[in-house]
């Protein structure tokens, strides 16, 4: 039997425990369930008790001898961060495109010339299983070093059945091999592959008839995502793919209104998507429709910065009652980062979320965006013991000292994985 772990004297424990269950919006995003001089008892991979150091000292008085004790004086402790939107499984890299964009090319110029997503699709198709495993493992290690303990990952760099399945099966293998929990999303409609140029509707049918049924049958994904964007998939095509996925038990997600306003936010509300992502150019009507439908906004401020675009209207979305989550969008083109702490900083700086809202967006609401809120995203009795000990004393300092990795230690399922 492994020893229990008793973490005590935590200067500030942000439990994220609140009466609001399910996506948090408005004031509920500021409720961090703070405990000063906090304490946690971890056992069997789960959180067994949460309270003040005094409360737990009394409760576990006769078991303290058996525990491994961690003194967290001067430190903040939060739930493990959750990244609800990544493209973490891919081959190769695209540093030349970074230079090209600085020289004036746009993201869409590069993609339409056969680069961008198409370039990564070629490199992912060519990558061997072992190369893909090794490359992705390095990125997952980096996520963990940045305090992230759960990561959603999308396919979409295959755009043919074989490679889409290769990416999704790789996620299954990594779920077994790596400490991080991976949540898989199918994204066959990430771009239109060159073989189907001019025959977009045929590719949509191919996704619906030949790809989705196998993905569902093999239980390779929980979510179904589409790049609904001018020049990629229309709202009508996107709706068709998302509705087909729904019939097979896959929950819709949408890359919406990233480059142009295109009705993606409205579509997310209409199809009952769990979340709409990006939303840099979302319309006011779209934001209102999302608030009404209870669709989460998954905002990606590192992508906006990297593409040198204005960030999404995060402040406005929170004020209008949309529950906001944030994510790295980790991918080789528009956001090659694994740093959720940087994304929290940017959520404050470029979207005017408060430090408390940014933490909720990166933990509890992020868990809601991938339907994991009953397992992770807050520190509550019975939940997975996924937590981060930070080299700062409170949550404001975490967001204020920006661009720095403040992680001191990480526990995943009660096991210390970063020290
Ligand atoms: O979320 N916009 C579409 N997909 C990704 C970028 C993928 C890539 O450039 O490789 C995104 O930004
Ligand atoms: Fe993305």
UniProtKB/TrEMBL annotation:
Give the pathway: Amino-acid degradation; L-histidine degradation into L-glutamate; N-formimidoyl-L-glutamate from L-histidine: step 3/3
Binding positions for 4-imidazolone-5-propanoate? 94, 157, 190, 258, 334
UniProt xrefs under InterPro entries: Amidohydro-rel, HutI, Metal-dep_hydrolase_composite, Metal_Hydrolase
**EC number, UniProt record:** 3.5.2.7
Kindly list the GO molecular function terms attached to this UniProt entry: imidazolonepropionase activity
Q: Where found?
A: Cytoplasm
**Chain residues that bind Zn(2+):** 85, 87, 255, 329
User: Required cofactors, per record?
Assistant: Zn(2+); Fe(3+)
**Where, by residue number, does Fe(3+) bind?**
85, 87, 255, 329
Q: Which domain of life is it from?
A: Bacteria
Q: Name one Pfam family in it.
A: Amidohydro_1
- Where N-formimidoyl-L-glutamate binds, per the record, is at 157, 331, 333
Catalysed conversion reaction:
4-imidazolone-5-propanoate + H2O = N-formimidoyl-L-glutamate
Keywords noted in UniProt: Cytoplasm, Histidine metabolism, Hydrolase, Iron, Metal-binding, Zinc
The record's listing under CDD domains reads: Imidazolone-5PH
Q: How is the cofactor bound?
A: Binds 1 zinc or iron ion per subunit.
Q: What does this protein do?
A: Catalyzes the hydrolytic cleavage of the carbon-nitrogen bond in imidazolone-5-propanoate to yield N-formimidoyl-L-glutamate. It is the third step in the universal histidine degradation pathway.
Q: Which family does it belong to?
A: Belongs to the metallo-dependent hydrolases superfamily. HutI family.
Write the protein's name. Answer: Imidazolonepropionase
């Amino acid at each position: 039997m492994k020893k229990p772990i008793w973490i005590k004297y935590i200067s500030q424990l942000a439990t994220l425990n609140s009466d609001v269950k399910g996506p948090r919006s408005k004031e509920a995003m500021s409720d961090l369930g703070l405990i000063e001089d906090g304490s946690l008892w971890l056992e069997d991979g789960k959180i067994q008790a949460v309270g003040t150091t005094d409360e737990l000292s009394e409760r576990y008085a006769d078991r303290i001898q058996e525990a491994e004790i961690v003194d967290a004086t001067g430190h903040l402790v939060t739930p493990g961060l959750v990244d609800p939107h990544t493209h973490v499984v891919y081959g190769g890299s695209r540093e030349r495109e970074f230079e090209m964009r600085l020289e004036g090319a746009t993201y869409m110029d590069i993609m339409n010339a056969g680069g961008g997503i198409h370039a990564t699709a070629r490199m992912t198709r060519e990558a061997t299983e072992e190369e893909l495993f090794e490359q992705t493992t390095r990125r997952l290690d980096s996520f963990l070093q940045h305090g992230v303990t759960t990561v959603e990952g999308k396919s979409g760099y295959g755009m043919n059945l074989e490679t889409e399945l290769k990416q999704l099966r790789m996620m299954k293998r990594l779920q077994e091999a790596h400490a991080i929990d991976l949540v898989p999303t199918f994204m066959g409609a990430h771009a239109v592959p060159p073989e189907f140029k001019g025959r977009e509707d045929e590719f949509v049918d191919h996704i619906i008839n030949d790809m989705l049924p196998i993905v569902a049958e093999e239980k390779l994904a929980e979510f179904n995502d589409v790049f609904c964007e001018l020049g990629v998939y229309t709202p009508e095509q996107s709706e068709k793919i998302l509705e087909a996925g729904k019939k097979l038990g896959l929950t819709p997600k949408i890359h919406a209104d990233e480059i142009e306003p295109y009705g993606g936010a409205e579509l997310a509300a209409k199809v009952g998507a769990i979340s709409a992502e990006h939303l840099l150019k979302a319309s006011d009507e779209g934001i209102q429709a999302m608030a009404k439908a209870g669709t989460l906004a998954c905002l990606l401020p590192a992508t906006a910065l990297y593409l040198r675009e204005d960030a999404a209207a995060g402040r406005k979305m929170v004020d209008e009652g949309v529950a906001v989550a944030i994510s790295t969008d980790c991918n080789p083109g528009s956001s090659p980062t694994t740093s959720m702490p940087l994304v929290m900083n940017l959520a404050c700086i470029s979207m005017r979320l408060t430090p408390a809202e940014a933490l909720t967006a990166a933990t509890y609401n992020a868990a809601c965006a991938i339907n994991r809120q009953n397992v992770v995203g807050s520190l509550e009795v019975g939940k997975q013991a996924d937590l981060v000990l930070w080299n700062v004393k409170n949550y404001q300092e975490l967001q204020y000292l920006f661009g720095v990795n403040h992680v001191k230690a990480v526990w995943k399922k009660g096991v210390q994985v970063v020290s």
